Amino acid sequence: MAMLADIVQSVEMLLKLIRKPQPYVDPDLDPVLLVPGIAGSILKAVDHQNGNEERVWVRILEADSKFCSKLWSRFDPSTGKTVSLDPSTSITVPEERYGLYAIDVLDPDLIIGQESVYYFHDMIVEMIKWGFQEGKTLFGFGYDFRQSNRLQDTLDRLAAKLESVYKASGGKKINIISHSMGGLLVKCFMGLHSDVFEKYVKNWIAIAVPFRGAPGYIASTFLNGVSFVEGWEQNFFISKWSMHQLLIECPSIYELMACPYFHWQHMPLLEIWREKEGCNGIPQTILESYRPGESIDIFKESLSGNSIDYGGENIPLPFNLEILKWAKETHKVLSEAKVPSGVKFYNIYGINLETPHSVCYGSEEAPITDIRDLRFSEPTYVCVDGDGTVPVESAKADGLNAEARVGIPGEHRGILCEPHLYRILKHWLKAGNPDPFYNPINDYVILPTTFEMESLHENGIQVTSLKEEWEIITEDQGNQDANKNSLVISVSVSQGPSKQSSRSKAHATVIVHPQNEGKQHVELNAISVFIDAQS
C-alpha cells in the first residue's frame, strides 16, 4: 500500500511538472552580460597538490580563518598581480550557469539571511521574467576583485567572454550592465581594447560607478578596514581587521582612491585634529586638512608599523607605494578611454543618501597625538549626496559621451534591487513591449487617452478647437496628498493686428487633477481663431 501511495505521489508530482508553465523566453532580445563590482564574485581556492576546491569568498562558516589563509596576498610589481601568500593555492572564479553562479548569491549555502549576500540575484530573476534566458541571452562575468582593473589576465578573460557570448547568442551584439567597480574594469577594457569592445558590444549601462573614486569610503578603508556584511551576520563573517590587511595589498582599492587631478566641485579632504607643541612650548590643538594627493604621507605614516603574522612569520604590510604607482597608470588609462562610435553608453547613479566624502579623525577635545593611532580611531564624515558609498559628483563624471545620465534614489548595492532601475533597464534593453511614452529620467509614463480636434473655416475666419487628455502613471506616490485640489492653468496668446498682417488668437486651459493610486489625469482644452487680413 505504501508503495502504491509513493507511486501515486510520484505521478502527481510528474503531472505538476508537466503542467508547470515554462518560463517565457523572448528569442529577439539582445544578450546581456552582467559585471559586478568589488567583492561581487564568488572566489574559490584551488589546491595545487590535489586539485580540491573550496569557496573562500563569500562564506559564513570559518569565514575569517579561510579568508586569511587563502586570500591574504602580496603585490608583485613586476606583473601587476596580487598573489596569495599560500604558494600552494590559486584563486579562481566559478563559471557555472554561464558565469551567473558566481555573481548571483555569493554564499549559496546560507539559508537564514541569504538576502545579505545577494548580488545580482534580484536582477537575474527580474530579467528572466522579461524573457531573457541563461546561456542564450543572459550571462555573467565574475573576476578576482583583488586585482587591478587593467590586469591583462582579467582583460583577456573578458575578451574571451565577450566572444563566447556573441557566438552563443547567434552573432548578436551585447549589452553590458556593470555595477560599481565593474564599471572601471569595463572602461579599462574599452580604453585598451577599443576594437574588440566595438566588435562585440552594442550598449554599456554603468550603474553606481565611482568614475572619480569613492573618497570618504576608501580613505577610511585604508586606515580602518571595511565590512561588506551588515547586521548580525558580521558576528560570523570576516573581521574588519582581516579585510583591512587584504585591501592594503589590492591594486583595485588604490584605483578607487579620489582622483587627484579631477576638478572637484567639493574637494574631498582627510582632516585630523592634532595636538602639537606651540612656539611657546604649550600644546595646541589644530585641524590639519589634506587634499587627495597630500593624504599619501598620512597613509604612509599611519600604516608604517602595520604587519600580519602568517604561518609564524611576521610580514610587514605598509601603505604600498608600488601599487600606488600602478594605480596612477590605471587612472591614466581610465581618463583616456573613449566610447567607440558604434556603442551607446548610459550612466545610472544613486542619489538621496548621505555619502562620505571627507573624513575627519580626532576632535578638538580629543586630538590625535600619534598618526599611527589612526588605525584604531573611529572617523567622522562630511557627507554629500550619493548612494552611501559613491558621491553623485564622482558617479556622474564618467568623461564619456553618454546617451543619458539618470540619478535614482538607492543605496550603493541595494540599487540593484530597485524597481525604478528595472523600469529603466527594461526600456533601454527593449525587453517586453517597449513603451514609447516612458520617460526613464523622471520615471513616469505619459499615456495619451483622448485626442479630439475640430476646425471650421468661413469668410476668412478659421476657428479650431482642441481637446487632449493624458494619464501620468508613476509608482512614486510620495506627494499624492500634497495637493488634493485640481490645478487650473490658463494661457492666452495673440498676434497682430496690422494693416498688412493677419490676426490670430489662442486660449488654452490645462487642468491637472490630483494624483490617485499612482495615476494623475491631465486635460487640455484649447481654441484658436485666425482672421485672414486678405479676406
Task: Give a written overview of the molecule.
- It is a single chain.
- The radius of gyration is 29 Å and the shape is globular.
- The protein has two domains: 342 residues, Rossmann fold (3-Layer(aba) Sandwich), CATH 3.40.50; 88 residues, no CATH class.
- With 535 residues, it is of the alpha/beta class.
List keywords for this structure.
single chain; 535 residues; 30% strand; Rossmann fold; six-stranded antiparallel beta sheet; globular; alpha/beta
Give the biggest sheet.
6 strands, parallel
Which structural class should the secondary elements be placed in? Answer: alpha/beta
As residue ranges, the low-confidence spans are: 1-12, 14-19
How many helical stretches?
13
| Overall body shape | globular
Mean pLDDT: 87
Q: Could you name the CATH homologous superfamily of the largest domain? A: Alpha/Beta hydrolase fold, catalytic domain
CATH fold field value of the largest domain: Rossmann fold
Amino- and carboxy-terminal Cα gap: 101 Å
Task: Write the CATH architecture name of the largest domain.
Answer: 3-Layer(aba) Sandwich
